[in-house]
Amino acid sequence: MNKAQIAAVAAAVGMLSGCATYLEEGATKNAAAQCEAMGKQFVKTDSKKTEAIVVSSATVTGECIGPEDPRYVSDPGPSTPPSD
Q1: Going by C-beta distance under 8 Å and a sequence separation of 6 or more, which residues neighbour residue 60?
Q2: What is the pLDDT of residue 79?
Q3: Phi, psi at residue 70, to the nearest 5°?
Q4: Interatomic CA distance for residues 37 and 54, integer angstroms
Q5: Of 21, 38, 48, 49, whose CB neighbour count within 10 A is largest?
Q6: 51: which strand partners?
Q7: CA–CA separation, 60 vs 29, rounded Å?
Q8: Domain extents in the chain
C-alpha cells in the first residue's frame, strides 16, 4: 500500500482567543488539498494545539490514502455546503 505522509504545521502570533483552533482547521484544509492534488484523500491521524498569551500553534499529521485503503470514502460529498 502506497501511503504518503503529510504533516502540516501552522503557527501565528496574536492574542485572539481560539487562534490555535483556526490554525488547526487551516492546516487540515491545506493537507487535504495536497492529498487531493495527488488524487487521494487526507486522513488525520493526530493534531496538537498550543495557545499561550502571544503565540498560538497547531500541528496536524495524517496520511494521503487512495481507493485501495479501507478508510477511503468513495463519495466524500461536497467540501462546502451548497448555497441556496
Answers
A1: 7, 8, 9, 24, 27, 28, 31, 44, 46, 47
A2: 59
A3: -65, -15
A4: 34
A5: 49
A6: 56
A7: 10
A8: 4-65
